[in-house]
Amino acid sequence: MDIGVLRLRAPLRSDFEAWADLRARSRDFLQPWEPTWPEDDLTRAAFDRRITRYNEEIRSDLSYPFFLIDRGNNTLLGGLTLTNVRRRAAMSVTLGYWMGAPHAGKGLMSAVLPSVCRLAFGGLKFERIEAACLPENAASIRVLEKVGFQREGFARRYLSIAGARRDHILFGLLKSDLKPE
User: Fold this and answer.
1) 2-127 belongs to which CATH class?
2) Which of 49, 74, 100, 176 is an S-S bond match for 22, by CB 3.0 to 4.6 Å?
């Protein structure tokens, strides 16, 4: 999916070097906001396992991972995942995302997120998108609110981030909440 100068696509095995390089250069920037990285996280073997899992989860309607690419120079910028798919009565999915340190703060995630949400509500037929954010992650809160996500609650010790159970602000987005293009 192309959005202006950006492209969203499924991760490929051939992305390993670009992914490992960007994640390594962004380690200090990303680790305060993410679960603890496994020791082998940036190895080809771990990446291959990740791609295998992604492909299985797409086929099984369990998650939909995307890499964010600069179309002009084919540079990997970051990633997004629609995961924790709940069909039947819930028809909801959880959004997660990350941006490489060199590309953060440029409005790129805010630019692409509305298209991801439209895909979730349209082609993937979800009724609700959920996201969770650390209270001190002001940049991520701005991204979510800019798209139209509503604060819905506070979850104590919700996820393990950087090795500790952390409280999170819970956000939700309905199709009617999505800001117009």
Assistant:
1) alpha beta
2) 100
